[in-house]
């Protein structure tokens, strides 16, 4: 066995184990009750918030979640706008059509 292959085996084993653990988690999620899923969602949201770069924003979001004022923190509008794909339409601009239909 080459030295490169020997060096790669621990990494490959680690990747395989990580995928196996993820698959097990996903299988177990299917067995959870609604309230357990909501609790899990809150924990995941707190974790995701902690991964944000802005510490003040993170602290604010965490306090909202902990106080129960919100159940979930949505991504900012800027993030969502970048996910939209533009489409080509024929004819007059959609904005003109909307204005006409509102009249």
Tell me what the structure shows.
With 103 residues, the protein is mainly alpha-helical. The chain has 2 domains: 31 residues; 71 residues, no CATH class. 70% of the residues lie in helices and 0% in strands. It is extended, with a radius of gyration of 23 Å. The model has no long low-confidence stretch (mean pLDDT 77).
Calculate Rg over CA atoms: 23 Å
Number of domains: 2
Element pattern in H and E: HHHHH
Beta-strand proportion: under 5%
The biggest sheet, with number of strands, parallel, antiparallel or mixed sense and barrel status, is: none
- Count the DSSP helices: 5
Label this structure with key terms.
single chain; 103 residues; mainly alpha; 5 helices; 70% helix
SSE arrangement:
Elements: H1 3-29, H2 34-50, H3 55-67, H4 77-82, H5 94-102
Quick description:
The chain has 103 residues and is mainly alpha-helical. Helix content is 70%, strand content 0%.
